[in-house]
């Protein structure tokens, strides 16, 4: 029936809106985190690592301090990559939802 078809289209449209909003929120959150880490945390962590390396070269600190600073830098870079991966994944989801060949989107325009 026409009413049943309209209900089905409305349900699919609602699913698409929810999926789009979730993907958009994921994209903006991941992008914000990646940018913040790159702009704020990374320069500070790189500077701290460089300072520890200089101090180690001068002799007053143990190698374990250098390794700890290096580990912190690697962990931060890994966190940045994870945020960038999440951002890319959300972008792919958004592109799929806005592509007319995506199954849920195509269902809206099916005869």
Structural write-up:
The chain has 111 residues and is mainly alpha-helical. The protein contains three helices and no strands. It has helices at residues 2-58, 63-98, 103-109. The mean pLDDT is 89.
Q: Give the radius of gyration.
A: 24 Å
Q: Helix and strand string, N-terminal first?
A: HHH
Distance between the termini: 13 Å
Strand content: under 5%
Low-confidence stretches: none
Helical amount: over 70%
Mean pLDDT: 89
The total of helices stands at 3
Structural class: mainly alpha
User: How many strands, what sense, and barrel or not for the largest sheet?
Assistant: none
Cα shape: rod-shaped
| Number of E-type strands | 0
Record keyword descriptors for this entry.
single chain; 111 residues
Briefly characterize the structure.
With about 110 residues, the chain is an all-alpha fold. The protein has 3 helices and no strands. Helix 1 runs antiparallel to helix 2.
Secondary structure blueprint with pairings:
Elements: H1 2-58, H2 63-98, H3 103-109
